[in-house]
Amino acid sequence: MADLIPNVGSGTLLERFLLADDRAIRIGAIHQLDYDRAVVITHDRWKSEVGGIPQYAFLLATAREVGNGGGDDDEVLLLRVEGTAPLSLERDQLAVREEALREALSKKHDPSPSAILDVDLDPFTKNRVSFTGLDCRIIGTFYEDVRDGRQVLDFGHDVDNFYATATYRVFKPIGDGLSALVSFIKPTEDPVQMVRIGAVRFSSTRRRTILAKQADVPVRVNIQDFIGTKTGMFGMTRMGKSNTMKTIAARVFAVSEQRRSEGSSPIGQLIFDPQGEYANPNTQDGTELAAIGVGHVVIYKFGAAAGQDNVRPLGFNFFDPEQIEPTKSLISSVLADATADYVKGFVQADFAGVPMTGESDGDAAQRRARAERGRLLLYGALAKADFAVPTQQADASGRQRAWRATVAMRGALAAEIERALGPGHIRQFAGGRSVGVERNSLTTVIDWIIERDEANDLTGEAQRGLQSFVSGDAWRSALPIYTQVSQNRQVSGYAKLKPLKPYHSPSVQADYRRDVYGELLNGRIVIVDLHLGPDDAIKRLSERLAEYLMDRQTKAFTSGSEPPDIQIAIEEAHNLFSTDKYRDDLDVWVRLAKQASKLNIGMLYATQEVTGVDHQVLANTKNWVVAHLNNAKEVGELGRYYDFKAFGDAIISHEDRGYVRLKTMSSPFIVPVQIDRYGRDLVNEARLAAGLLALSPVQG
After folding, report:
1. Does 350 score more than 70 pLDDT?
2. How far from the centroid of its chain's Cα atoms is residue 313's Cα?
3. Could you report the per-residue pLDDT of 167-191, keeping only the tens digit for each?
């Protein structure tokens, strides 16, 4: 045989990793073979001895003589069982059984089915009818190659030659051999870090697999595949998508901490959590991502009280000068449907007062003063709209003090206010160029200023101070919002601001978007818990956070530096990446989907509607996690990508939670996997990577 088939029997890697006695068991031979499919002949006894051969099981076929040395022509075909196939003599076997039944019926006194159909065949006949055929798809070829002077195991997606069918032996991989097979990745120069993701699972029914002690054969993936790429998670609700996301997040966190220990930049992870299942423990997992450690997982949510270790309030402080830009942006958005001139004036006005490049000190001081006066009026409008005015704020040194609206004001005008209103409404600061308006006196002081301007009854320095105070664009643009009067006509004014109250968090010390981005740069997992907020507020806050993230990453990219690695997890992706929305290049989620890769943003998106995601997003998805889908339309769309069409019937019929078909960037073929349950063991792995003690075992 060695002369007829040169070099067959050479590969030591093939044998060591795939075909060794403890890694593969012979179950049959090739009956028919071409470049795409193979029919394997096997026997009921052989199938029973290996714990069964379920549909979609992997088999190995080889013409090599196991244990022989030789040349470099060894190859092992990878087969996937997709159904049964008739054998050449099967009609003869059926005829034998039929004849046996006819003979039994003619000889038995009892013609009942149980007496006839259960008749024992003679051993020879029974053995003959126990041969069966398996219809298999040829997935590709394992072979040995030499890379950089060392021998490696490689994989090709086709067959480059085949021999006479009688030459091929067929094996079922088991144990470490099966694990090596399903965890195989093609040789690469890119970073590789293999981690367990779950166990091989070929079928919903697992009795024989459990009895054969093959129910927990590990599947390992290159976790680096998920960093900086798109990962799609498809499946019905409660089929394990969020469990998979948590597992990946914990594994990426461990990589991030390893990078940190090596002096490299860590990886930040941002999870938008519409149901609160990532931020909070649940009965499905028994723990939560936050269990990794309060110093490594930060949660932002509506209504969060200040002082909690790793929980931050979600929203803006509308009364914080440092957050005036996002505050103005939100206010502009609710005024956008109005065409009045006062709205246009508000949108164009400068409430931040940031110095311009090349501006003189005097002009910069005037810009800042006018912005402060406009903010005072805006704060008054917010107070009239029933926004909670903060009680405290941080000073330049970070110390907390009573909240006041600081505003530039001439001393003569300040003195006139104190004379007219009495003490306790304003506080004059050293130097006499600015005052602090007390939180309970905002509308009182503003009303007095407006009345004096209209009455024009001040004189001297007080009058000149008043005219300077009310002359800036910011003050004039905010005045109609406060008074609800524009050009002698009634307008909605501050009443339009009331829908924005859910966005206001008086205890927030800084723009939450800046804080979130800072946490991401520090390699933390940031969970934005959106399940408690109003839908409109959730939508806008999420969009503004995504916009801010894109803006900062783009600035890093365009400056010539490498943007930091950030991962984003998104639920209900069909609402964000539909075909209709994907035409809108201004939509932040569309921009994120199109530009994420070049900005070093990895995106994990989950949906139960494959058809709801634009084909361009799907075409650029590198990793696929497919759980149960319940209709042929979604599975049909899925079947357009990779080899998922072959699993269509199983995806619809198998409703086991966590049972997925997995295709990663490094793996050359789809692997059926039972994803590990996210729990304390995985949490402890992440904690140990961060140098933390493991959680104590649950007592019970």
Report:
1. yes
2. 22
3. 889 999 999 999 999 999 999 888 8
| Interior/surface letters 95-111, b for 16+ CB within 10 angstroms, e for the rest | ebeeebeeebeeeeeee
Q: CA 414 to CA 428: how far, in whole Å?
A: 7
Structure tokens that stand for 218 in this block? 């590990």
The tokens for 467 are: 């005219």
CA distances, 414 to each of 213, 373, 417, 467, 637 (Å): 85, 13, 5, 13, 70
Please choose, from the candidates 393, 376, 386, 540, the residue with its C-alpha nearest in 3D space to the C-alpha of residue 472.
Answer: 376
Tens digit of pLDDT for each residue in 43-93? 989 998 999 999 999 999 998 765 555 444 578 999 999 998 988 777 777
Are 168 and 33 in contact, with CB atoms under 8 Å apart? Answer: yes
- Which one-letter amino acid corresponds to residue 113? P
Whether 111 shows a pLDDT value over 90: the answer reads no
Q: By percentage, how much of the chain surpasses pLDDT 90? A: 53
Confirm if 617 and 581 have CB atoms less than 8 A apart. Answer: no
User: Token match 């290049």: residue?
Assistant: 585
Burial of 266 (0-12, 13-18, 19+ CB in 10 A): buried
CA atoms within 13 A on the CB side of 394: 10
The closest alpha carbon to 291, from 354, 235, 246, 327, belongs to 246
Residue 682 contacts by C-beta under 8 Å, 6 or more apart in sequence? 246, 247, 250, 251, 676
Q: Which of 161, 145, 137, 136 is nearest to 63 (CA)?
A: 161
Number of H helices, E strands in the chain: 23, 26
Give residue 120's pLDDT. Answer: 63
CA distance 445 to 438: 9
The C-alpha angle with vertex 383 and arms to 378 and 386, in degrees rounded to 5, equals: 135
| Cα(697)–Cα(700) distance, integer angstroms | 9
Contact 477, 335 (CB under 8 A): no
Whole-angstrom Cα distance, residue 199 to residue 194?
14
Partnered with residue 232 across adjacent β-strands are 605, 624
Joined tokens for residue 292: 């990794």
Using alpha carbons, select from 575, 614, 576, 608 the residue that is nearest to residue 592.
576
159 close to 77: Cβ distance less than 8 angstroms: yes
Q: Distance between CA atoms of 450 and 555, rounded to whole angstroms?
A: 43
Host H or E run for residue 417: helix 411-421
- One-letter amino acid for residue 448 of the chain: W
522's CB contacts (< 8 A; 6+ apart) are 266, 268
Q: Pull the structure tokens for residue 175.
A: 């144990």
Kind of pairing between the strands at 58-62 and 169-173:
antiparallel
Amino acid at 11: G
Query: Mean of the per-residue pLDDT values for the chain?
Result: 87
Long-range contacts for 99-107 (Cβ within 8 Å, ≥24 apart)?
100/125
Instruction: Give the pLDDT of residue 72.
Output: 42
Whole-Å CA distances, 93 to 30, 47, 125, 126, 647: 19, 19, 8, 9, 31
In what side-by-side order are the strands of the sheet with 659-663?
218-222, 194-200, 671-675, 659-663, 623-626, 230-234, 601-607, 566-570, 268-273, 525-529, 297-301, 311-313
Q: Is the pLDDT of residue 4 over 50?
A: no
Q: Which residues pair with 671 in a beta bridge?
A: 662
Nearest to 445 by CA among 416, 412, 478: 416
C-alpha–C-alpha distance, residues 551 and 325, integer Å: 15
pLDDT digits (tens, 9 = 90+) for 281-340: 665 556 788 889 889 999 988 767 656 678 888 878 899 988 888 888 888 877 765 556
Distance between CA 378 and CA 516 in Å, rounded? 26
Q: How far is CA 570 from the centre of its chain?
A: 5
